[in-house]
C-alpha cells in the first residue's frame, strides 16, 4: 500500500454532501452539508469544502457513486467514466445525477490550493462494486434472456460499502441488515456476497422511507394503465410514508402507540425484514452472524428485539441489556447465532478500496 496519501472522500446524497479527509487509512476531518436543493446550493457547498482543505496537499478525491453498472473497480474519472455514470442514472435517478454534478463542479473549481488548471485526480467507487460477482441464480431476473443482455439488466445491489465494511471481519454465514432511510439486506458467506435485496435499482426489497420495495409487478402495470406516474409513486410516495404519512422512523416510533397506521408501518417494516432474513437463511442453509447497521439498525433496540424474536427457532438469543445499550455484540453467550450492532463507515471502506487499487 502506498504511504502518505491524503484522500478527500465525497459521499453525495440526494440532498446532502458528507465529506471526510483521510491521511492513508486515518480519518483526520469530516463534515456534512445538508438541505441542498439547487445546483447553486451544491456549488456553494463544494466551494466551501475545497476552501476548508486549501492548505492540505490532497492527492486524490474519491466519490461514492451509487450505480456503476458493469464498472466493478475504482475508476479514475474521465469522459468515458462520466458517460457511464450518466448512462446508469436511469437506474439511480435520485443519486447518480447529483454525484456527477459534484464531480463536474470540482473539476471546474480546479485545485483547492487555488491553482485553477491543476486538477486533483478524481476516482469513482461504486455502491454496486461489492455485488459485481453475485451468483447467476441470484443476479438474474426471469425475463427474456435477449432483453437481459441488450439492456444490461441484472441484480446490481446497493449500499455495497456498508455491507462490505460491517461484514469484512466475519467468517461463515452472515446476514447484514443496513436499515436507514434506504434499506437493504445481504447474505454473505466468508466475505463473499451471494444475494442482496436491492436489485437493478434501489427500489427492490425492503419497505423504505418513501420507497415501496417488493410489490407485485402486476401492480405497476395496473397503475400505469390507469395513468399514474409509477416512478414518482413508488420512489417518493410509498414505503413508510405511503402507509402512515411519516418517513422519519423516529416519528413512527413516537406515534405508533396511538396511531394505528404508524403501528402498521412499523409491523410491515419488521415483517418484510424477517421474511428476507428467512429466505437468506435457507439460501445459505444456516446462519452464523446477524449484523444490524445504519441509523435505524444501530439505534433502535426495540426493532432488533422484534426481529430477533422471529429467529428464536434458530436458538438465536439476545442479551437484553446489551441490546438496550446498542453494544457491538448483543447476542447472549449461549446464542447459536452471533448478533452484532456495527456502526457503518462507508467512507473508510472507500478509502481502503481506493488505496488498494493505486
Ligand atoms: P440515509 O439512508 O439517507 O443515509 P440514514 O441512514 O441517516 O439515512 O437513516 C435515516 C433514517 O434513520 C430516518 O428514518 C431516521 O428517522 C432514522 N434515524 C436516524 N437516527 C435515529 C435514531 N437515533 N433512532 C431511530 N431512528 C433514527
Give a description of the structure.
About 40% of the residues lie in helices and about 20% in strands. The protein is α/β, with parallel strands linked by helices and about 350 residues long. It has helices at about 40-50, 80-85, 95-110, 135-140, 145-150, 160-165, 215-225, 230-235, 240-245, 250-255, 260-285, 295-300, 300-310, 320-325, 345-355, and strands at about 5-10, 15-25, 25-35, 60-65, 75, 120-125, 175-180, 185-190, 190-195, 290-295, 340. It starts with 5 loop residues before the first strand and ends with a helix. It has 15 helices and eleven strands. It has two domains: about 5-125, Nucleotidyltransferase, domain 5 (2-Layer Sandwich); about 140-160 and about 170-345, 2-Layer Sandwich (Nucleotidyltransferase, domain 5), CATH 3.30.420.40. The protein is globular, with a radius of gyration of 21 Å. Strand 7 (about 175-180) and strand 8 form a beta hairpin. The longest helix is centred in the C-terminal third of the chain and has 25 residues, at about 260-285. The strands form two sheets. A six-stranded mixed β-sheet has the order 3-2-1-4-6-5, with helices on both faces. The structure holds adenosine-5'-diphosphate. Adenosine-5'-diphosphate binds near residues 180, 248, 250 and 299. Adenosine-5'-diphosphate binds near residues 13, 180, 182 and 209.
